[in-house]
Design brief:
four-stranded mixed β-sheet; three-stranded antiparallel β-sheet; 10% strand; single chain; hpI Integrase, Chain A; alpha+beta
Length: 371
């Protein structure tokens, strides 16, 4: 609500000060020589505040990018992101803070961020070569979210300089689609059966039959843990209902999966030899509260099977590919794999071409056959 005060100075001129106080918003004040101008400003400002269009421009001249990064780390990260996501974002935020954190919010524009993009593109990675498009995009996604909060929630800037797409980022490469054909699958499973690690075969079968990520599989429990792991995805196996409930995943969502096919019998047998000092399905021998590391057994099995350019995560790609070839729709596959964005699943569309052809032919036969 607006309050007006009029005062006459020593020069004999009258000035009109208007103050606006609305619950949930910082107070706003301005002084005018004419009362009509004060009333117009009050009406316009009140309307803009109610519609989230008003921003105190002086705020962007008082705060630096480093200021809002620090506030974001203390107020937003612990609330909106998992422990693992926080660990991933903090080094990125530290980079932005060291790079352009000294700049005032009012000084940030597309040109500044374009310079940062170009510098990142020329930065060497720890693997040799330069940072890839995906790494650059992740850094920009992180700071873009900081600016979004500063704009929409804290009302410190009028416009997010990264919101309109003026800063063009490098094109991302097409997603990986390496999957096992029937012969490769049988060779890998045979090598897993012969592995020195008795759990490898079951772990690989779970990956092939559920499209679960490695971290999701390794942090499966027989019952709800008293202290869920902060650094990883995790879930619970319920053989009675023949289901797996993933309570936390990479993207922060939860999802349920049915236990189907041979993995049900395999899990029943596996439960008979479960350890009593851990609720994990695959506990480490040295630390039962942590999962076993199957990196070397999997690499040995992969080599024994003669598989080139194949990693554990490709078991997930294999399951998604099989689903697509079986005629499952992208939303159905997404429900199983947990992908938020269907665009990332379009890499598998070519595998379902026969199914698409059949659907189209069926529609034409039914609807256009008499034309």
């Amino acid at each position: 609500m607006a309050r007006f005060k009029s005062r006459t100075g020593k020069d004999g001129k009258t000035k009109h000060t208007v103050e606006i106080r609305l619950k949930g918003f910082p107070p706003q004040a301005a002084t005018f020589e004419r009362l009509t101008d004060a009333r117009k400003w009050a009406a316009s400002t009140e309307s803009a505040i109610r519609e989230n269009r008003h921003f105190k421009t002086s705020a962007s001249k008082k705060h630096t990018l480093a200021d809002i990064i620090e506030r974001y780390q203390s107020d937003i990260l612990p609330v909106k992101f998992t422990h693992k996501e926080q660990l991933n974002r903090r080094p990125i935020l530290a980079w932005w803070k060291s790079e352009i954190g000294y700049l005032l919010l009012s000084e940030l524009d597309a040109a500044i961020f374009a310079e940062c993009r170009d510098k990142l593109a020329k930065t060497q990675s720890h693997k040799g070569g330069f940072l890839g498009p995906d790494t650059i995009k992740k850094r920009f996604d992180c700071i873009k979210n900081v600016l979004k909060v500063a704009c929409n929630e804290w009302l410190l800037i009028e416009k997010n300089p990264l919101a309109d797409g003026k800063v063009e980022l490098p094109s991302l490469p097409r997603g990986r689609t390496r999957f096992l054909d029937d012969d490769e699958r049988e060779r890998l499973l045979s090598a897993c059966r012969d592995s020195s690690n008795e759990w490898l075969y079951l772990v690989v079968m779970i990956g092939l039959c559920t499209a679960m990520r490695k971290s999701e599989i390794m942090y499966l429990y027989w019952r709800l843990p008293k202290t869920p792991p902060k650094e990883s995805a995790w879930g619970v196996v319920d053989l009675d209902s023949k289901s797996i409930k993933l309570h936390q995943t990479k993207n922060g969502d939860s999802r349920g999966l049915p236990i189907v096919g041979p993995i049900y019998d395999l899990l029943k047998e596996h439960r008979k030899i479960r350890r009593f000092d851990s609720d994990l399905l695959f506990p480490s021998l040295n630390n039962p509260q942590k999962p076993i590391d199957l990196t070397r057994p999997f690499e040995n099995a992969r080599a024994a099977a003669g598989l080139d350019n194949f990693v554990f995560h490709d078991l997930r790609h294999t399951c998604a590919s099989y689903l697509c070839m079986a005629g499952a729709s992208l939303p159905e596959i997404s429900e199983i794999t947990g992908h938020r964005d269907l665009k990332s699943l379009k890499r598998y569309l070519h595998l379902s071409q026969g199914h698409v052809d059949g659907v189209l032919a069926d529609m034409v036969a039914k609807r256009m056959g008499g034309a």
